[in-house]
What we know:
Layout: H1 9-17, H2 21-27, E1 29-31, H3 34-40, E2 44-46, E3 52-55, E4 64-71, E5 76-79, E6 83-85, E7 91-93, E8 101-105, H4 111-121
Antiparallel strand pairs: 1-2, 3-4, 3-8, 4-5, 6-7
Amino acid sequence: MRKLGSVKPRKQRKLAYNAPAHIRHAMLAAPLSPELRQKYNTRSLPVRRGDTVRILRGDFAGTEGKVRNVDTKKLRLHIEGVTRETAEGKSSFIPVHSSKVMITKLNLDDKWRREVLESRFGGVPSEDKGSTVKDDVSKPVETGITKEA
Length: 149
């Protein structure tokens, strides 16, 4: 069987740095919180501006804030409240990698993102239980096949 890709770190870095935009977008995925995971029946989604995330690792672990900017070139996020003071006295964002955060609230302003969630979920999520609204399965379906026993 043919092995796909390489496990060499040098080649992995090269692939990440030279990746096209549609693959970079997928590289910026982060896991969903347990509540969102149950509600939308998906484990992770690409982070977008306006999402609320909680930082899980590093000096700012436990900090929650809105994503202000997604840097697809450097594969980093800028989050409100995660800043440092520069030598000039200005405030600048500290870039955070998407693997170190968890999405706690989704920004659903974009209709395409809603459609992705609905297609992954298999229906429109119900607000009360996290179940889907589908056709009634109690009705028999006419298939044209007769049972001969």
